Amino acid sequence: MRALPSVRQLRAFVAVYHAGQVSAAAEQLALTQPAVTVLLRELEDKLGVKLFDRSTRTLRRTEAANEAIAYAERALAELEGLVAGMAEVAGARRGRVRIAATSSVAQILLPPAMRDFRAVHPEVKVELEDVAPGEFVETLLAGRVDFGIGTLEASVPGLREQVFLHDALAAMGQPGRDFAAGRPLTWKQLAAFPVITVKAGYGVRRSIDAACESAGVALRVEHEVALLTTAVALAASGLGIAVVPASLLTRDVAATGLVARRLTRPVVERRVAVIRKAERSLSPAAQAFADLLLEGRET
Questions:
Q1: Which of 243, 268, 259, 237 is nearest to 193 (CA)?
Q2: Does residue 63 have a pLDDT over 90?
Q3: If exposure means fewest CB atoms within 10 Å of the residue's CB, which of 4, 116, 168, 193 is most exposed?
Q4: Domains (ranges, CATH) in the chain?
């Protein structure tokens, strides 16, 4: 590497080659004439060829200079492209963001965030890997994505989480005389209804079971599903009351006529976080997406 020309030497050579005079090149480079002369001699020593024939009044390009100029200009152009490209990456104007999320997060929380991010960073490609709940932590630990958006049931060594949403569990169903919107619902009151929930070992089911144990009740579980969105769909068909995070009551879901009642005694929250490997730094583009989520975090 010591035999390679420096950027300053290449710039001096290109400037002198096109200007035809050391004095004009020195003015262009904001250097003194002796400094430019030294840079040229250093370059000639490294290349082992003479680039200019000099006299007291003239400076003539050699054949070696005519051949070297294309290499020098191409090398400088590549370096300038490197600097410009890295400036775009550093400014999150270009790049790629890979995100892992479970189905409910991918369907409900991510689309508006992706839309807002694209409006500010249109040249950044966002790749979404929607995974099953049981594959979420494995995907993060394997390093296949920049970060994940979701919930950790317990702390996982090697993973760092930054919570941006506290999503309370709610009972969601069709309105009726016994299930009216507006008022909270206790877990004991919920026991009077047929319930739709996720299967044991899936997502919020552990929190649901813990809440029932705390309240001293046993729910009438009519349907167990793998996806929260499926639970909402069954509730929309009048098959029971879905126990899901309140964030699932989106405008589209509300259009089906479903209402949500916050569950209390106890209140149970799902903490949604940006989760990534603790020792892994994020690219500027990935950090920009994470910051977009964290800026709107609930306190």
A1: 243
A2: yes
A3: 4
A4: 7-90 (1.10.10.10), 95-164+272-295 (3.40.190.10), 165-270 (3.40.190.10)
